Amino acid sequence: MHESKSHRKANEMESNVIKVKVFRYDPAVDESPYYSHFEVPFEPGMSAMNALDYIYQHLDSSIAYYDHAGCVLGICARCTAKINGKSGLLCQTPVQGDILLEPISTSRVIRDLVVRWNK
After folding, report:
1. DSSP string over 59-80
2. Which domain holds residue 68?
3. How many separate helices (H) and strands (E) can be counted in the chain?
4. pTM for the whole thing?
5. Cβ-based neighbour number of residue 112 at 10 Å
6. Closest CA to 36 of 52, 16, 12
7. Widest CA span of the chain, in angstroms?
8. Cα torsion angle, 58, 64, 68, 69, sign
9. Would you say 23 and 101 are in contact if contact means Cβ atoms under 8 Å apart?
10. In the chain, N or C terminus with fewer CB closer than 10 Å?
11. Beta strands in the chain (DSSP E)
12. Of 78, 83, 102, residue with least CA distance to 93
């Protein structure tokens, strides 16, 4: 059985999209945390920060995270978060497929992925 050219193209396009699940919580507004789900075009070499940038610029500008303005060099560590359950820097962690993004500590959330760093 052979796939048609249009069917192959549709499959290729679907495989170039990743699903990003993002922790959301604004203690001033929300009763409890929840997750938002997004589909983001995948590009080889993209970081978790690139996925968040796409979400912010094209899908949901209300999402809160430390963006590239911090440093994007992996030096300041402001963008530390849990990526698929493991601590890492959003700006330095490469995306390989679907991802889950959560704050490094849910007890110190200011909003979404932004946390209070001092104790």
Report:
1. I-TT-----TTS-SSSSS-TTE
2. 5-115
3. 2, 7
4. 0.83
5. 21
6. 52
7. 62
8. positive
9. yes
10. N
11. 17-24, 34-41, 80-83, 86-89, 99-103, 109-111, 114-115
12. 83
Domain tally, the chain: 1
- Of 24, 12, 87, residue with least CA distance to 52: 24
H or E segment to which residue 49 belongs: helix 48-54
Q: CA triplet 89, 92, 93: central angle to 5 degrees? A: 80
**Could you identify the residue written with the tokens 């995270």?**
65
Residues β-bridged to residue 89: 80
77 with 83: CB under 8 angstroms?
no
pLDDT single digits (tens) 17-28: 999 999 999 999
Instruction: Read off the pLDDT band of 74 (50, 70, 90).
Output: low
